[in-house]
Amino acid sequence: MFLFVLPISQENSLTLSCCARRRSTSIGRLEEALEDEHEQYISLRKNTSNLDKQLDVHKPLVNLLDNLVTMGSLYGGDNLMLTSQYKQVTNIM
Fold this sequence. Notes:
With 93 residues, this protein is an all-alpha fold. The chain has helices at residues 10-74, 80-92.
């Protein structure tokens, strides 16, 4: 394999040097932006994890309320069963 070295003028050398410097600066900015976005991603993952834990804690309560609403709609919204039990309790007292 042969390596040919072409003579480069000082002007071309400065141009190449300037381009290389710009590229390294833009790469540095991209790396900083990527780091910032990664930190935001980690923060969002932590928030999502915390919300999932809260949902796990509140899920049984939500299911209970859902069941109560479903039971209420099955009985037409009337509280006959609850009223009759209340009357029985008050008659005993």
